[in-house]
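Below is a filled-in request sheet from our internal design queue. Each sheet records the structural input a requester submitted and the sequence that came back. We keep these sheets so that new team members can see what a complete request looks like end to end.

REQUESTER: design group, bay 2
PRIORITY: normal
MODE: inverse folding
CHAIN LENGTH: 369
BACKBONE (tokenized):
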């Protein structure tokens, strides 16, 4: 592990939070130290009581809302992330390092300091109106979850979905929160036109494991009910059995796919655990804190699947891994998908022909006569 990323504060796991530390941004030189001045004096036991960590939401105004990528192993070129940071607290989240770019920690800061893009729907409308915009599949929530808890109050994602549905833009939604069912009134009409699919991330069926893997996300049972509800509404649902972590949740692979198919999912995908940049150190802390007896074995299997390293950033390999363990996992996934009638997520066609363009100036002028 990179010595520069070792946190300066003791590792403490708080209820409802995934990361155990707040390692500094790799772009900053400052450090942290614990301030005990606010604690009561004369009570030594109070030193060991972890303080509650509340979520801070910062209202921000983005300059652009549609992000673009040209990665060959990602099945979309355009995406929208209504939030930077995520309350769900998944310690393995590959988006955590993005908080370092704003001088915050990819650790606890990532899940407690969330930036909400309040003008997202307004910007989206403007970008769709551009004469240079070429319609394509827009992935909603490719980095951070668009239906994390704060969305219930702010409804930023709902406003985005309304615009995408009205403008008939093909889009997908990826989430691990049952809150997505709130927006069925928009999702279902888009799905009826073949323009929408929802991807539900479900990495375990065990409530106890879910509480430490994604502590503030919906329970596994709630996610299965969400799959069932959306399926009944005619919305194609894919289950993302990700990430697969050796000896932690990989034993559940077939059970998750079976339960999801029975709930109504028709597509599936799987990604092997990724540990880019600061995520590696945060994950090892989490692993040693929650599974101390298995930690070395888990990291050994990860190394075997990553060419002898903790992470392989090469395209395609970063998603699947290599070697006997990764190959066996892939075979199990393929056989279970065949057994339960689940298609691969990337195979769905994308229809851009229905996109509603803004009226041209000459057309609007002719309408005056």
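RETURNED SEQUENCE:
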């Amino acid at each position: 592990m990179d010595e520069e990323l070792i946190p300066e504060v003791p590792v403490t796991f708080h209820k409802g939070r995934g990361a155990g530390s707040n390692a500094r941004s790799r772009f900053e030189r400052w450090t942290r130290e614990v301030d005990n001045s606010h604690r009561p004096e004369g009570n030594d036991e109070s030193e060991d009581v972890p303080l509650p960590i509340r979520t801070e939401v910062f209202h921000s105004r983005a300059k652009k809302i549609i992000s673009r990528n040209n990665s060959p192993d990602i099945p979309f070129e355009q995406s929208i992330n209504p939030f930077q940071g995520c309350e769900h607290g998944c310690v393995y989240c590959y988006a955590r390092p993005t908080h370092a770019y704003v001088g915050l920690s990819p650790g606890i800061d990532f899940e407690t300091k969330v930036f909400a893009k309040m003008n997202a729907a307004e910007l989206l409308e403007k970008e769709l109106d551009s004469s240079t915009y070429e319609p394509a599949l827009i992935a909603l929530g490719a980095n951070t979850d668009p239906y994390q808890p704060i969305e219930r109050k702010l409804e930023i994602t709902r406003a985005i979905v309304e615009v995408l549905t009205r403008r008939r833009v093909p889009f997908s939604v990826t989430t691990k929160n049952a809150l997505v069912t709130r927006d069925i009134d928009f999702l279902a009409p888009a799905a009826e036109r073949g323009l929408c699919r929802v991807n539900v991330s479900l990495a375990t069926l065990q409530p106890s494991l879910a509480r430490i893997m994604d502590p503030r996300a919906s329970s596994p049972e709630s996610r299965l009910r969400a799959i069932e509800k959306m399926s009944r509404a005619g919305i194609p649902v894919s289950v993302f059995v990700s990430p697969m972590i050796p000896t932690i949740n990989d034993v559940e692979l077939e059970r998750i796919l079976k339960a999801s198919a029975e709930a109504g999912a028709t597509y599936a995908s799987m990604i092997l655990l990724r540990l880019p940049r600061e995520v590696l150190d945060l994950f090892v802390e989490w692993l040693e804190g929650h599974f101390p007896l298995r930690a070395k074995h888990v990291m050994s299997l990860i190394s075997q699947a990553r060419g002898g390293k903790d992470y392989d950033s090469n395209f395609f390999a970063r998603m699947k891994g290599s070697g006997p363990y990764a190959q066996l996992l892939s075979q199990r996934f393929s056989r279970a998908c065949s057994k339960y009638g689940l298609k691969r997520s990337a195979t769905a066609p994308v229809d851009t022909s229905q996109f509603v363009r803004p009226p041209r100036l000459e057309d609007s002028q002719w309408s005056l006569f």
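SHEET NOTES:
- The CA atoms of residues 8 and 32 lie 6 Å apart.
- The mean pLDDT is 87.
FILED BY: M.R.
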